[in-house]
Design brief:
globular; 9 strands; 5-stranded mixed beta sheet; two-stranded antiparallel ribbon; 13 helices; alpha/beta; Nucleotidyltransferase, domain 5
Amino acid sequence: MRSPKKEPFSASRIDSKFKIRNWPSYNNALRNRGRLDFMIAEDLVEVWYNKSSSNNRGRRRIYSDKAIFICYQIRCLFGLRLRQTEGFINYLFEKSSFKIKCPDYTTLSKRCQTLGLESLLKENIGEKEFAHVSVDSTGIQTYTGNEWLENKHGKRYIRRIWKKLHILIDDQGIILANSTTIHTSDDRSQLDTLLKGIKTKELLGDPGYDGDAVYQSLLQKGIQPRIRPPNSNHQLECKELSTARDKAVEYQQTNGYQAWRVKNNYGRREKVENTFFRFKTSFGCQFLSREEQNMANEMIIKCHLLNRMFEIGRPESVRAA
């Protein structure tokens, strides 16, 4: 059944304008986002080469994990290919008179798969409890040469191959967790992964996360779901035994979406949409890597860089009179 047409927003919201109060400091922060010193450690020369011994078979690794991580940070920040990354970093070291060398592009590709960055975004969370968190997903295009060949020679169109990037942010827009899946995966399947180790009172999500199982799982964890109900005219059979989701659906059917939005302060979820806008504006809509594990680690590194950029400086916007 086709969803009913959405009601337009109020004129005050459409015509509203915002201005930045801290433009001088924010403008300076935008410049500093292109600097390398917020990624490169002061003890770079000491930690660049691997000094730890290993009991594994084979030759000991030459470069440390921190060196590989720094190289990938520079690669993601400037959108470089692996060979370009190697040449760019070696040029920086030569100009800085550092007696170290960048790993070759083959080493960078292989070592990225074993970095173990799953807990990178959650390192500084600790026991902190958030007032609310927001969750959403977006598509990131993967590399494929078949699509170009098929379209060039006039054969049937092959749909672009995408992967889904799922993120969980706090009330300030900081990314707390992320995951990368195939484009056919259900958004609800990643909730447990994203919420692992996160303490919060509320969770905001779009209709893609709607479902009785999601509501029950969140309530068992002490989290109040603020998930938009679907636009459905289905009549509930037993109102006395209705679940939390049924009550949300019934309230929206009775009072309308705008009333449900105001009641649950659903506008707070717009920060996750803004986070995706900042992400794609800074890093684009495509993967740089081709291996599955490298793609996942690339998304973690980019989310980490976006958080670092936000820590350098953020705008303070207020509604203009």
